[in-house]
Amino acid sequence: TVTELVFRRESSGTAIAFTEGSLGATQSTGWSRFPSGLVAKWGYATSGTSFSINLNSTGPTLSALYTVQFTPTSAVTAYVSASSATALTLNLSSSGNGYWMVLGKE
After folding, report:
1. Which of 14, 17, 33, 52 is deepest in the core (most CB within 10 A)?
2. pTM of the model
């Protein structure tokens, strides 16, 4: 059990975690909640030209995305689209891999 820093609302007693987060078992994915309530999720897409990523497979369920970033680790042109707050699609001009990150809210 990990103790997290929380803010407790006086009116309702609801606890809001400030420091909650997780690093995936393979350390290629993870997420973190910021004190502002924003949630960052990240991962590594490997060896392919098209990737579909379920953003809600780990961590809090996102209701909105504010930014999406993909950083290729090889010389490719990348097209990134998000059809909703739960699905991210990466299309590359040739086979490659890279790091992705999204910033959103629950």
Report:
1. 33
2. 0.74
